Predict the 3D structure of the following.
Amino acid sequence: MRRMPEVIFDNCVLSNFSLSDSLDIIKRLYASSAYITDFVAAENLTGILKGHGRLKDINNAIREGWLKETALSGDEEKRLFEYLAVSLGFGEASAIAVAKMRAYIFACDDRAARREAALLGVRLTGTLGILIKATKKKIISVKRADEILGRMIENGFYAPVSSLKELPFN
């Protein structure tokens, strides 16, 4: 079986899945290859402390070991983080630095962060891409994906579509 490429998540994508009670989709797709940086873990903790209790599922995923927390390592990663942190949040900047230096896929929905990552040649996915992948791999149906997307939107996710059926590659 072909190994899934490593994916490093920003807080927004994980929050979308956690707040819509669908973090299991991330686990099923990326169980052996899902990462967050310590900066993203800190952002998640901030969300929990602000009363978003369902975000604790992300902490549980780290404790269970299928979501791995990593820190910046090496001078190049740290320099790239410092460069990116001028214009991006620490979570996004650290995740892009790790993605670039370790050849991971960056899972992010933020336009500015995606633009910076693309300029660096980092491969990208996002919330919608993950939902589409889950339907293509028969983990969930398109109907179920649309229900999850609806819950994500109710929780504040800005999606350019309200149904995966609106997307051309589905």
